[in-house]
Structures are given as structure tokens and as C-alpha cells.
Amino acid sequence: MPSSNPEKEVVPEIKKSNKKGKRKRTESNWIDNKRKVLVNSGQEYRSRDGSVRSKKVLGPVCPETCKLKCYEKFDLETRTKIFTDFWKLADHRKQWDYVNKFTSKVSKVRCTTETPSSRQHNVHYFLPLYTDSNSNTPERVRVCQRTFLGTLSITGRIVRTAHTKLSASGTTLPDNRGKQPNIPKINDKTMVHSVCDHVASLQDALARAKNINTNKVTLDKKLTIENMFSMYLDWDQLSNYSNKAQTCREYKHIVNKYMLIERY
Ligand SMILES: [Zn+2]
Q: Which residue stretches does the UniProt record annotate as biased composition, category Basic and acidic residues (predicted)?
């Protein structure tokens, strides 16, 4: 690469500052772009602070203790091809798309145990496997996190970034369709009132008097949300409300959002 350091170049006196500034900008854009290409294609590069970042290499596969036995499904040759294909994309967006295509966010909690604040996700990881040599479409085979990250030689941070980009853009890739957690949207006031009034009615007279005009309820600790929901469906006052919770999930969601339950 020929030296084009602007400091060393003879710049004409006329319009000196203007020209020099423009040249410097072009130069630094060019260096940034070149670095970007190197970073995105996994090659060695010199970071802005001058330190050298070594090129990406294929990471290790999981140990034999792995329940998914990734090491049996993906040999070194296959993993090398996946690694090479990934870094050949040489573009952040395409790499995020790849990560989103081969990961699925799965809701960790179930109706019976969750509270809205405790909702969490597991990530399921997959890698492409060409099982049929005549087919151009790979099978999506489940692997553990370690094999996924190691084979692509990426960190968990990139997976999280890819997921953020996916939800920010609002597009959903076919592989993730239907796998996003389905959090009920409750914005019907009548429905909320019907549930809150019902939960309040489950208290004994003393507790009801104590908690009146608050969102607190005092309930027997043996009363589960499923019991409460089935009592709600049989509640003689329910017909007074034009809208009601249809599922235990909706019922529970409202209880968790609007009520503070004390147990005795
Ligand atoms: Zn594994």
C-alpha cells in the first residue's frame, strides 16, 4: 500500500486548511472502512488504539458430557465450513441475520409459576447440517451454546445484539415465528375489574374490611391461582361484568399486575 500520510504531503498554500482537513477526513474514513471489513470478516486488524486484534479461529466443540452430543453430529470439517461461511458474510447485518436464523428465544416460565417481573428466556442454538448431499437446504440441528459460539467464534454478546436488532427492526424470521413468548395484552378495564373484585371477594370478612380501598388481599396460602380461576368462572357476580378473563393465564396476569397478595 503506497504511503499517503497527509502530514508528509506538500499542500499548496492556497486553501491549505480546507484541503488538508478534507484529505484527513477521507483518509480516516478509509482506514475505518478498511478496519470494518477486516473486523467483519474475522481477520487480524489494528484497533483504533493501535493494538493488534488477532484473527478469528475456530473455537472448541463441547466436552463429551454434553447432553446434545454436538461432537457426534458435527465433525471438524463441517464445523470449519460453517465457520468459514459465517465469516465470509463479512457484514454485521448478515451475521446478525445468521445468528437469528440459527437461534430461538424460548420462554422459560409457565403460567403456574411466573410473575411478570420474573419472565426470562432460554436461547436454543442450532447449526446447519447438510445431511443429504443432493439438497441445498441444510437441516437445522440443535447444539449447545458452547458449540454454537465456538464454531462461529463469536461471543454471547453478539447473540444478544442480534436478538436486539431483530426485535428493534420488528421483522421476524420464519425460524422464530411462533416461538416468541406470548404475553397476554390486557387493556380492558372491565376485565381487570372483574378479576380484582373477584380476588378481593375471596378474603374473609375481616381481611376484606382491613384491605378495603387498597390493592392488597389476604388469602389462604393453600389457594392456588388455578383454584382461584376456577372459582372465578363459577362466581355468581361474574355476569355483572361485560368482559371477563378467558384463561388462567389472563387471570394470573391481572392478579400479578394489579394485586398484592399476602398469605396466611
Ligand atoms: Zn454440545
A: 1-16
CA of 142 to the centre of ligand 1 (A): 9
| CA 6 to centroid of ligand 1, rounded, Å | 52
Give distance in angstroms: CA of 148 to centre of ligand 1.
8
**37 C-alpha vs ligand 1 centroid, how far in Å?**
31
Q: Which residues contact residue 142 at a Cβ distance below 8 angstroms, ignoring those fewer than 6 apart?
A: 68, 124, 125, 126
User: With a threshold of 0.85, does the pTM exceed it?
Assistant: no
pLDDT digits (tens, 9 = 90+) for 63-73: 889 999 998 99
Strand partners, 141: 127
